[in-house]
Amino acid sequence: MKPIEGRKRVIIEDVKPQVDCGRYPAKRVLGDAVTVTAAVFGDGHDHVTGRLLYRHSSEKDWRSTPLSPLTNDLWSASFIADALGDWVYTLEAWVDHFDTWSDDLRKRLAAQPGQPGVSASAEPQDIPLALRSGALLLEQTATRAKGPDSKRLADQAARLLKLAKAKSDTYDYPLTDEIVALVAQYPDLTLETRYPQELHLWVDRERARYSTWYELFPRSTSPDPARHGTFADVQALLPTIAAMGFDVLYLPPIHPIGKAFRKGPNNSVTSTEDDPGSPWAIGAKEGGHKSIHAPLGTLRDFDALVAAAREHGMELALDIAYQCSPDHPWVAEHPDWFNIRPDGSIQYAENPPKKYQDIYPLNFESPDWRGLWEALRDVFLYWILRDVKIFRVDNPHTKALPFWEWCIGEIHKKYPDVIFLAEAFTRPHVMYSLAKAGFSQSYTYFTWRNTRDELRVYFEEITKPPVTDFFHPNLWPNTPDILHATLQNGGRPAFMQRVILAATLGANYGIYGPAYELGENIPAKPGSEEYLNSEKYQIRQWDRSASHSIAPLITRLNQIRRDNPALQSDGSLHFHNVDNSSILCYSKWSGQNQILVAINLDPTQEQAGWIDLDLKELAIPHNETFDIEDLLTGTHYQWHDRSNYVALRPDVMPAHIFRLLRKPNVETPLTP
Amino acid sequence: MKPIEGRKRVIIEDVKPQVDCGRYPAKRVLGDAVTVTAAVFGDGHDHVTGRLLYRHSSEKDWRSTPLSPLTNDLWSASFIADALGDWVYTLEAWVDHFDTWSDDLRKRLAAQPGQPGVSASAEPQDIPLALRSGALLLEQTATRAKGPDSKRLADQAARLLKLAKAKSDTYDYPLTDEIVALVAQYPDLTLETRYPQELHLWVDRERARYSTWYELFPRSTSPDPARHGTFADVQALLPTIAAMGFDVLYLPPIHPIGKAFRKGPNNSVTSTEDDPGSPWAIGAKEGGHKSIHAPLGTLRDFDALVAAAREHGMELALDIAYQCSPDHPWVAEHPDWFNIRPDGSIQYAENPPKKYQDIYPLNFESPDWRGLWEALRDVFLYWILRDVKIFRVDNPHTKALPFWEWCIGEIHKKYPDVIFLAEAFTRPHVMYSLAKAGFSQSYTYFTWRNTRDELRVYFEEITKPPVTDFFHPNLWPNTPDILHATLQNGGRPAFMQRVILAATLGANYGIYGPAYELGENIPAKPGSEEYLNSEKYQIRQWDRSASHSIAPLITRLNQIRRDNPALQSDGSLHFHNVDNSSILCYSKWSGQNQILVAINLDPTQEQAGWIDLDLKELAIPHNETFDIEDLLTGTHYQWHDRSNYVALRPDVMPAHIFRLLRKPNVETPLTP
User: Fold this and answer.
1) B3 touches chain A (CB under 8 A)
2) What range does the record give for the signal peptide (chains A, B) (predicted)?
3) Labelling B323: which of A17, A189, A450, B40 has CA 20 to 30 A away?
4) What is the pLDDT of residues B32-48, one digit of tens each?
5) Binding site annotation covers A263?
């Protein structure tokens, strides 16, 4: 079957960014220059041109910007994402007969007999006829133009006709740049090709891409060992945490803790009246996901903590874990939201032969899935109304993926500034699918990537398109669930190494403290990644002033991150080769700001080696001498050309974080 | 907005093959096993399963085959493309509650107190309850099943209930493999996810992927220098060409040649009455694209040639060039199919300052584009009815791309066995776009890829997905338009090298003869790729029996191609490193057939070096000694492990084409 209009000769394909053929939005953050590229071409030698159409979804009319040619039929155009939320973009392109004519005419003019390099007896170039063709195109443009522009174009058409009749020996290009630009304002779109899809772009606030998280258990913040910590105790710690440079303070679930099958210390199946239980066993007779565990304080205390955090330049992030203790009010109110066993009992969490009788998972195949979805969404909305705008979602990969797409979509419609961090440690497709469904940030495999090659391969995957179009990694050297063997065995140097890696490889990173800065490293048992005497099941006391604390290093790292835009996004990450496999070297940049990190991955001894800098990536000319400053120590060095030597003692300082000090007029790379 | 059914928990994505998000069909050839892969996964730990749905577009009902798991949530299934033409495929997948239950039950059984490795005092595993869950699933399956199957399933459900009630100390897995397989026949599809797209697959006959072309000018086939060659003369040559192993005989345009602005020898703008003109200046008062140039013979002679070629195992391919001489009947009948200049004249071909006054291009923006499209399609249909099933299309990139998609689609609907070769030497996107639009084979940049690195990079691009899903390369070491400097300067060894490369790198290849086998290598002028005294503008005499002819080599190459399935497709091409950059080494395989080529690219002197075989690609164990046979000479060698030495004299034989002689029980790779 023929198309309705077969004369649309331009093809638009390979449009980027584009996530899963446009099934999901691409992601950017507020203020980003969004660059769209596409292959745009037609048949033959006619010139093509086109434009990017874009609008915030709240706008009715398209905005547009012309496409610029790159190489090999690729074109690009950019716009600034100057509002949060959902944007739409597409492209249109067409054969540009005027530009084709203009270019041909210039070639004819250059080939006129007697022109430089052209014999006086050369073939004439039919220029009067070409001028008449141009006049025709100008007349057509005039009919599309408005007001005085129309008259100007018609006048130029008349001028070209007059020139054509005048018969001259040689001709000059007859139009001014202004007229050429004017013609471009009134293209003939009759036969334009419109890209068939309207692609979506989701714009988050900057904290989705650049954030620094500190997790703590409020229960352990009391200065009095005999007393359960409270929101007020946390509030008292805010100046300390803010001074370390964190901007997100994240609390494990704050809801009433179930009593049925409550776990004792070290995940014991027996517990006493005094054991506080796991905050992830959510719900008791006092309430569920919209209630506060009474020992922590009141809703008013909570509001005060949220407000105080903001005053310290921090935001409070809540942990939302969609699972219920057997005591959760939903169990009685909505038994159909759970799996019912043949004996009528509710199915607890199981991974045969393991049983988790203190936890009831929700059933996303419930006949009342609509009611369940709404209730879960309403939990977020409840806390959003209390000014919480960041949520860390526990095990989102055990809840139906279509639920997340709907739930986050619903919330984002009204609150585009809400950030969701997916705590999913599962298979790659599932992790990526959660990010596509709407999660703003994602936990990663960073914890289990420790060697040079493991780190390099993994970070090359997660910091480049297509992954970066939908996935913002958030790196955690530890969590209450994960104390990696590297930390168990590597001592203080390992804690320094892993936090330096997290803070510089990832624009988003976080630590679970004060376990981290105090070097807590005893596992529950050999081979386990669980902490001994984990705060998940008991209250702990911490001596934040201990002399072995690496809080000063963390404070310095966070200051370096604030001062250096290069470390506030991940797309520019580039690895440089080193002749010692225990040293990892990488750079990041943003505008003129360039950071180069060299880190010894071995916690046991000094490692030294020659770095082979990729000078092109750093925009450093060959054979140049340049100044660098180690931002951890303030020491300046002069480096020369590509090969430079480093020696790093893990017990002193396992890394250099260099800022390149360059002349401002040196050519620098584009913004990633 | 919520989906209509929010309980569809399975995601299907990343389906391959898929060309431009399903905008174009993927391509395979008749008899291929078409393997479809996809990422299929859901939330949590529930098992998923699914199937591939496929049908020839002439069939109403889907056929289906179950998906098999690969790694990391990837699944695949295959079907045999056992008919030419348009196929459709998609996938469906669902949570498999029965399989999840079955797997859980096995874990419970293994964890029963007293089982191997399990203490007698271990926690009981609630097996009776699990059996009741299984009975429920079997009952549900029974309601979906038909006839006796339904009863069998219901009986099993009852059996499980009875076992559950009996209370035993230990239990065994209660179902036979037959019952498990029976359950799989009646899946619960209520909550299945269907991939939203139905993807298309185009199935060509095998010659689209494996063909051997010989191009000649019929005008030059007369044994009498005083006489214009005829179809009858060509017919007389068929045994010779067939004996060389070619299966496609391709003729430049056979239509009446225009007289207006006829070109003389060497593209001279002046010509005499005796000059035959260029066959690409199509159309005279005797007729256009459906007529035959009278000096070649009659339509009956043509029919006889087509039939005789088939008798020799060859097919005739016609060159269809959509452009007109000023004498073409269409010029008078349909002036609106051409560009009209402001003075009322028809625009001839131009690339300012160059003029091609003997050629009028067609105007694909004609108001009568519908009439034009139909006329062009009808040219193909006319020759198809004369039993021509292969067309080489001249400069398709200067005709509107949407036209090709429609035209080839229309023809393929009725004649799926027609093969179109695109003669486009233009930018990559345009070349690929023609293949996506429907061209079965494509000319390539092979002619301009001569060094080891040029060849390797280019062939790694065009022989791997995504390109192989829509693009079948056809390699030409020369054409009447292209005599590359490598041939001009390299003498006989260069002609040997380039044809060996073409015949072994490309399952489709062709030569323009007898210029090729006779080593014709004088350019029209220095720096030009045109032949001196080109047959395009004059009749030539050739001495096919000349002793320097490389026809014997070409004959041997074509025989090797026929005997070795490895050389009949391109997807298995793999390069092996050599420590001498003048030697290129690569392998291809199909089933048990393995071919390894080592070729000296230097026409001037012997080159020798150590090949570093990729043993894994060749499925050769480390440290093995294996036999290889050089199919060009019949010589046998014993090679050992990965490092093996070759020395190649270009004047004698620039290449080895080895067949690996392996024990049949050695593990061999899968079919590409």
Assistant:
1) yes
2) none
3) A189
4) 999 999 999 999 999 99
5) yes
Give the active site residues of A.
394, 423
CATH number of B97-185: 1.20.58
User: Which B residues, 168 through 197, put their C-beta within 8 Å of a C-beta on chain A?
Assistant: 191
Residues of B within 8 A of A351 (CB-CB) are: 45
Q: Per-residue DSSP letters for B59-71?
A: -SSPEEEE-EE-S
User: Looking at the complex, does the CB of residue A107 fall below 8 Å from at least one CB of chain B?
Assistant: yes
Rounded to the nearest angstrom, the minimum Cα separation between B403 and chain A is 7
Distance, in Å, from the CA atom of B595 to the CA atom of B593, rounded to the nearest integer, reads: 7
B chain contacts of residue A45, beta-carbon cutoff 8 Å: 351, 398
Tell me the nearest-neighbour CA distance from A365 into chain B, angstroms: 5
A402, B6: Cβ pair inside 8 Å?
yes
pLDDT at position B665 is 42
Hey, which residues of B are catalytic here? 394, 423
Structure-token match 């029965």, residue found: B98
A109 inside 8 A of chain B by CB: no
Tell me if A10-95+198-203 shares its fold with A573-661.
yes
Q: Is B4 on the interface with A (CB under 8 A)?
A: no
Question: What is the sign of the dihedral through the CA atoms of A514, A517, A518 and A523?
Answer: positive
pLDDT digits (tens, 9 = 90+) for A571-616: 999 999 999 999 999 999 999 999 999 999 999 999 999 999 999 9
Query: Could A108 and B352 be called an inter-chain contact, meaning their C-beta atoms sit closer than 8 Å?
Result: yes
Q: Residues of B within the annotated binding site? A: 263, 323, 358, 395, 536-537
At A395, which amino acid appears?
N
On chain A, the residues whose CB falls within 8 A of the CB of B352 are: 104, 107-108, 111, 125
DSSP reduced 3-state for B184: helix
Which tokens hold the place of A548?
């072995």
Is the pLDDT at A672 greater than 70? The verdict is no
What is the architecture of the domain spanning A573-661?
Sandwich (2.60)
CATH of B204-319+363-566, one of 3.90.1150.10, 3.40.50.300, 3.20.20.80, 3.40.50.11540: 3.20.20.80
- Residues B2, A73: C-beta atoms closer than 8 Å: no
Mark the ranges of chain B whose per-residue pLDDT is less than 50: 664-672
| pLDDT of A291 higher than 60 | yes
CA distance between the termini of chain B? 44
Nearest CA in chain B to A129: B342
- Whether the pLDDT of residue A663 is over 60: the answer is no
pLDDT band, very low/low/confident/very high, at A242 (cuts 50, 70, 90): very high
Q: Of the ranges A167-176, A494-503, B553-562, which one carries the lowest mean pLDDT score?
A: A167-176
CB contact under 8 A, B108 and A369: no
Instruction: Please say whether the beta carbons of B473 and B444 come within 8 A.
Output: yes
Domain ranges of chain A: 10-95+198-203, 97-185, 204-319+363-566, 573-661
DSSP A669: P
Report which of A639, A646, A648 is spatially closest to residue A615, judged by C-alpha positions.
A639
The answer to whether B73 contacts A104, with C-beta atoms less than 8 Å apart, is no
When the candidates are 2.60.40.10, 1.10.10.10, 2.40.160.10, 3.40.1190.10, the CATH number that belongs to A10-95+198-203 is 2.60.40.10
The total number of residues shown for chain A amounts to 672
Q: pLDDT tens digits for A27-73? A: 999 999 999 999 999 999 999 999 999 999 999 999 999 999 999 99
Q: Alpha-carbon distance A382 to A386, whole Å? A: 7
Provide CB contacts within 8 A for A334, sequence distance 6+: A368, A371, A372, A375
Q: Looking at CA atoms only, how far is residue A396 from chain B in angstroms? A: 8
ipTM score assigned to the predicted complex: 0.95
